[in-house]
Amino acid sequence: MRALLLFLAHQENIKNFFLKFKFFRDTAWRFVAGETMDDAIKAVREANRIKIRASLDLLGENTLSREDAIKAADEVVKILDGIGQEKVDCNVSVKLTQLGLDLNTDFCQQNLMRIAKHAAEMGNFVRVDMEDHNYTQRTLDIVLRARKELETVGTVIQAYLYRSEQDVRMLLENNVRMRLCKGAYLEPVTISFKKKSDTDANFVKIMKMLLESDQYHALATHDEAMITATEQYAREKNIGKDRFEFQMLYGIRRDLQQRLAREGYNVRIYVPYGHRWYPYFMRRLAERPANVFFIARNLFRG
Length: 302
Ligand code: FDA
Fold this sequence. Notes:
This protein is α/β, with parallel strands linked by helices. The protein has helices at about 1-10, 10-20, 20-30, 35-50, 65-85, 105-120, 135-150, 165-175, 195-210, 225-235, 255-260, 280-285, 290-300; strands at about 55-60, 90-95, 125-130, 155-160, 180, 215-220, 245-250, 265-275.
């Protein structure tokens, strides 16, 4: 089921079929804050009200033209201005394929630098999301180059990849701030753990490496076992709640987000918005079979 949904995430004709159904479109709004920047800022403000920070993500990936990549970078610069004007507690997340990584690496680097420099001017921060394994090395290379010039850029590590532990060591040496997640793409068995228990064990291993470092990192998961392991390790090692943050996705486990914030942990939600929500939404469906059964039951009524 997971493989099928992740495959469908990239099928344009299937997308057009699904989009005909109102219920399918409506369900997406559980995971996506809306189509405009105003919708997104509204969601951020609501989160901030209950002491939860946010990271705004302008949806879009695998941009096919330079013009579109530049437009996406322009929009992210505008978001940073919006965040400053609205005085909300929020940074931004970007995907390098949205900024032209499929077109040309230097061009993509320039787009990222423009955003990261603007973030620095605004006293803000840019998180570079991690996409599938075809982009891992190039993403790390681009982030490292950016990090040499600016502190305002960090990236994401996926616990399901065998290489991640080694990548984390290298990124720690270069003072790169990381978000640790399990990983959302369909990856070959030759390079990734297939059993949930193995990915979880690697998540815990890397979580410890991050907590022990003197940088501020993020643990991005809704898995209570991972969260408990993090809380326990931080207590055991006397690592203050202000030294790291938990991150979760907009619309998922709000109860858990709120409980952690009430308990004094730093919590940030990832708030996606924009028109290009289909692949993001399919990845969220793939993570939880119950989401798919819910859609399937209702699809043909809509
Ligand atoms: P797991 O999948 O084991 O789920 C644990 C529990 O969480 C489930 O039992 C369920 O209760 C709940 N849950 C999880 N997903 C759900 C869903 N879609 N709907 C409803 N409930 C759900 N990945 C990536 O490859 N690159 C990236 O850059 C990022 N960035 C990122 C940012 C942030 C802030 C988060 C939280 C996650 C990501 N991810 C990501 C996605 C990540 O890799 C992973 O696919 C999801 O977080 C699901 O994994 P969990 O750690 O939640 O555990």
